Automatic annotation (TrEMBL):
<dbReference type="InterPro" id="IPR031884">
    <property type="entry name" value="Sil1_fungi"/>
</dbReference>
<keyword id="KW-0653">Protein transport</keyword>
<dbReference type="Pfam" id="PF16782">
    <property type="entry name" value="SIL1"/>
</dbReference>
<keyword id="KW-0256">Endoplasmic reticulum</keyword>
<dbReference type="GO" id="GO:0000774">
    <property type="term" value="F:adenyl-nucleotide exchange factor activity"/>
</dbReference>
<protein>
    <recommendedName>
        <fullName>Nucleotide exchange factor SIL1</fullName>
    </recommendedName>
</protein>
<dbReference type="GO" id="GO:0015031">
    <property type="term" value="P:protein transport"/>
</dbReference>
<dbReference type="GO" id="GO:0005783">
    <property type="term" value="C:endoplasmic reticulum"/>
</dbReference>
<comment type="similarity">
    <text>Belongs to the SIL1 family.</text>
</comment>
<keyword id="KW-0732">Signal</keyword>
<keyword id="KW-0811">Translocation</keyword>
<comment type="subunit">
    <text>Interacts with KAR2.</text>
</comment>
<dbReference type="InterPro" id="IPR011989">
    <property type="entry name" value="ARM-like"/>
</dbReference>
<feature type="signal peptide">
    <location>
        <begin position="1"/>
        <end position="33"/>
    </location>
</feature>
<keyword id="KW-0813">Transport</keyword>
């Protein structure tokens, strides 16, 4: 008796069915992957979206390129990038760091991590007299530490430095912001020296300082005032910076300001300190002149060119807003010519005797050296401040001590 065996499907058919089932399952996944493949990479990024517009989203982790891009405040920065602060926008920017990359703004200058280097001069051997006080090397210039905030400052400094040197200004707003930042840095002994080492930059600052102000809108600092403040800051307690200007003084005075068509000498002695300017501008300019007069050569030229005549009209002003500028002038005269304890070299000024009150209210003679006593007395009566009383007292003593000198201008 023959047995009945169950029918079985051939093996090839079973294999084909299994493969077909797997293929059907794979098709939707493949189609889905194909549909979204252009954004496959972006799907893996964590995005930050502050609006419903997807075009305004940006990755949580900053993705650098070879060009500087703005870094959002809530983005994460990978390590090793070249990061800078854009002084015009106030935004942080970053790009791929390229070792030994040279900033075009620093071309031609020795740099170390975007910090300008000052080449140390050869120190001369000085024979110290016996019993002299110990020397304190307070004038030694040290470069800022590289990296961090110092790097940002150096880049901002060089961008404004380049605008002053070349005269090429991207925009008025950028230039004004740059001058404001440069004024802050000028008080640093290192940057003060760098400013005065470049002749073209010094010429540009003197030209700006001697430019008439004209009407000034509220909240705006005129460029002449900013330039004066930069010079004053650079010269403050910085003998090395003062020496740089002293070396080029004659050349500087003979230079012409292209936008004014006048020499710096003419602007410096006739337009830098004017009662028609704002008291703030005059105060900054007097501070700059005070710093310059610390140099023997410049002080001699200043006296020979009747520089004191541009200071005296400020003492004529009776409004309270002029008090600070008048005090600056009083301090300049005391520290430079009358108060030996403050470093003044006595006997250089004033010369001759005081003029009469009548002479000092006459326009033709009101600016003579002999009228300083009269206007110092007016300051005492107007303000009664300690500096005005000290100025009056010191002037009287100087007149007495200098009585044997020729009397220049006495009527």
């Amino acid at each position: 008796m023959s047995s009945i065996r169950p029918k079985t499907r051939p093996l090839p058919i079973i294999i084909a069915l299994v493969l077909g089932l797997l293929l059907c399952l794979a098709v939707p996944a493949t189609a889905s992957a194909s549909q979204h493949s252009p954004q496959a990479g972006s799907d893996k990024r964590e995005l930050i979206c502050h609006t419903s517009n997807p075009d305004e989203c940006y990755p949580l982790v900053f993705e650098p390129t070879d060009e500087f891009q703005t870094v959002h405040d809530d983005q994460q920065l990978p390590n090793g990038l070249h990061v800078r602060l854009n002084i015009w926008t106030g935004k942080k920017e970053a790009k791929i760091n390229v070792p030994d990359e040279i900033n075009p703004a620093l071309e031609g200058l020795p740099v170390d991590q975007a910090v300008v280097l000052v080449e140390q001069e050869q120190q001369e051997t000085i024979q110290v007299p016996k019993g002299a006080p110990k020397y304190d090397n307070v004038g030694k210039i040290k470069e800022p530490a590289p990296g961090g905030e110092a790097q940002v400052e150096a880049i901002a400094f060089m961008e404004t430095f380049k605008m002053l040197k070349t005269g090429v200004i991207p925009s008025d707003e950028e230039f004004d912001h740059g001058l404001e930042g440069l004024e802050e840095l000028s008080h640093d002994i290192y940057y003060g020296l760098k400013i005065t080492e470049e002749t073209d930059v010094i010429k540009a600052l003197f030209c700006l300082m001697g430019t008439p102000e004209g009407p000034v809108s509220e909240g705006y600092t005129p460029r002449g005032q900013q330039a004066a403040a930069i010079l004053a800051g650079a010269l403050s307690n910085n003998p090395s910076a003062l020496n740089e200007i002293s070396k080029i003084w004659t050349e500087l005075m003979d230079s012409t300001c292209s936008h004014e068509g006048a020499t710096i000498h003419e602007l410096f002695y006739h337009h830098t300190i004017l009662p028609t300017d704002s008291p703030s501008k005059v105060k900054a300019a007097v501070s700059a002149v005070n710093g310059l007069l610390k140099d023997d050569k410049i002080r001699q030229h200043f006296l020979e060119d009747n520089g004191m005549k541009q200071l005296l009209p400020i003492l004529f002003q009776e409004k309270a807003e002029w008090a600070a500028a008048q005090r600056k002038i009083g301090q300049l005269v005391l520290d430079t010519f009358l108060d030996e304890d403050m470093g003044a070299q006595l006997g250089q000024w004033p010369r001759g005797q005081a003029l009469s009150n009548q002479a000092c209210v006459t326009p033709e003679t009101a600016l003579e050296d002999g009228c300083w006593d009269y206007h110092a007395e007016m300051m005492v009566r107007l303000h009664g401040t300690p500096w005005s009383k000290e100025l009056r007292k010191r002037l009287a003593s100087a007149r007495k001590a200098n009585s044997k000198l020729p009397n220049h201008g006495e009527l």
